[in-house]
Amino acid sequence: MYGRCWSRFCFVVVCLCSTLTLAQESGEAEREVFRPDHWARGFHFLAASGLSTALFNSRVQEAELGGGASIRMDVGYYWTPDFAVEIGSSVNLNRVEGFLIWDNQFTLGVRARVPRLAYSRYGAPYMRFFSGRGPLIIVFEDEAPSVYQASGAQRLQLEGPVFGASIGYMQTATTGGVWLLELMLTFHSFESLEIVKSNKDVPVVVQEERVRDQSSFSALHILIGVVAF
Amino acid sequence: MLLRAMLLMLMFFAVPVFADERFVHVERTQIPTRKRIEYFGVKYAVQWTFYLTTQYETIQDHGSFRNWQKNPLSPHFDRDNFENNVIRHTLAGASYYLFYRSRGYSESQAFLWSNLSSLAFEFTIETFTERPSYQDLALTPTLGTVAGIGAEKLSAYFHEKKVLPGRILGFLFNPYSVLPRASYEFRAIPVIREGHFGALLEWRY
Question: In chain B, what residues touch A19 (CB-CB under 8 Å)?
C-alpha cells in the first residue's frame, strides 16, 4: 500500500520537476531551426491525426472493428540531431454496431532517424518504439448487451499495457513548417475490466474483474501531422 | 515632428496599396519571474472560481478536506465519459494555452505553463472530490494546445478582416485577445511585387 503511494508520489514529483525544468530551459535556450535531417536540440511538440483500422482479439472471439479515427500528440526531448525521448498520448475512436470503442494510450518511447537510408535536407525517414498503459472504453450507445443490462452498465473500461512501433517520413514544407506522414502499429492488451455507470455526472464502478481471456486491441494507423514547435 | 507626421500620413494611405495588414502575436523575450508567478496565480484563481461555481453540487456530495489531503498521492485512470475527458478538458487546456499566449509566451512556453496549470488543477483543486487522473494530466495540455493553436490562427484570420462580424468571431475564437495588454497587434507588412521598385517599411500600432 505504502509502496504504491510512494511510486505515485514520485510520479507527481517527476511530473512537476520535469515541467519546471523544461519551462526554465525553453525560456533560456537559443532557438535552432528544426529540420527533418537535423533535429534541433530541446523539447518539441508533434501532433498528428489520421485513420485507423482495428482488431479486437480474445481467446473466445475475434472482431474486426473496421475503420476509425485517431489523434496522437508527442512531447519529446531531442537530445541529439537524430534521437529523442518522448511522452505520447493518443485517442482512437471506432464505431461498431451500436458500440463506440474509445482507446486511450499513454506511452514513453524513443524516436530515431532511420540510419543508412538516403535522406536530404528537406526530408528524412524516422522510426519510433514506445510502450505504456491506458484504458480502452466500450460505450454502449443503444442498449447494453444482455449480460450487462441487470447492472445498468453504460460502458466497460478495460485497462492494460500498450506497445507500439511506427515508421514515418518528415518533410519540410515550402512554407517552412515540418510535416510528417507515419504508419503506426499499436498493441493494447488488457488485465482488468470495470463495468461503469453514471450517477448524474459521477461515474460509478458497478463491478470489477480480472481479464483472463487474453483480450487485446491491435490497430494500424496512418497519420499526417506537423511539428507544432 | 512634421516629417514624422507626414510619414505617418503617407503610410496611412500606402497601407491599402502597398502593404498587408496582419494580426500577429508578439512574443516577449524576457518575462520577469514576478510576472510569471502573477500570471500563474491569476489562472489559478480563475480555476478555483470555475471549479467552485460549476461543481458546487458535486463538492457538497463528494468533497472533503480528507480527500484533498489523501487524493494527490493516488492518481489513476478515471472512468469519466468522452465528453468530460476529451471535450471539456480540451477546452480547458485551450483556455490555459491562449491565456499564456496572450501574456506574450512563446508557443512552447505557453504549452509548458498550460501543463503546470493543469497539474495544479488536478493535484490541488479537483482533489477535493476526486483522485487526479492520468487522462486529464496528459490530454488537457496536449489536446488543449492543438485546439489553442488552431483557435489562435482562426482568431487572427477573422481579426484581419477588419469588419465587425470578423472582429466578433476573432474575439470568440480567442477571448484573451480582448484582454488589456494582450500580446497581439496589427502589423503592416509590405507587399513585394515582381518588377516593382520601392522602399520596405514596417510599423506597429
Answer: 112, 115-116, 119
